[in-house]
Write a structure and sequence with these properties.
The protein has two helices and two strands. It is an alpha+beta fold. The chain has one domain. Strands 1-2 form a two-stranded antiparallel ribbon. Strand 1 and strand 2 (42-50) form a beta hairpin. The model is unreliable at 1-5 (pLDDT under 50).
């Protein structure tokens, strides 16, 4: 299913469907999305659901882990932090 890259209403709807689908099984959910806006820039969107403190803690923990990996020379951020 291909949609125009700048169709933010489609992206919002799909993210909200996903969140609705899994939210009963989660304390918190945070989705970060970056989409092309034009040839030179991108647009970012963050949608969260549930416990704000858990969202904040999870994102902060991930950022600290990525900083530590950078210091150690591990560039692969696709791996889940341990």
């Amino acid at each position: 299913m291909s949609q125009p890259s700048n169709d933010n209403s489609f992206i919002d709807a799909e993210i909200n469907k996903f969140i609705e689908h899994i939210s009963e099984h989660c304390d918190s959910i945070v989705v970060f999305v970056t989409t092309p806006a034009d040839g030179q820039r991108t647009e970012s969107k963050v949608i969260g659901h549930g416990n704000w403190f858990a969202q904040y803690g999870h994102v902060r923990s991930w950022l600290l882990e990525m900083d530590q990996r950078e210091k150690l020379g591990k560039k692969d951020c696709d791996e889940t932090p341990e």
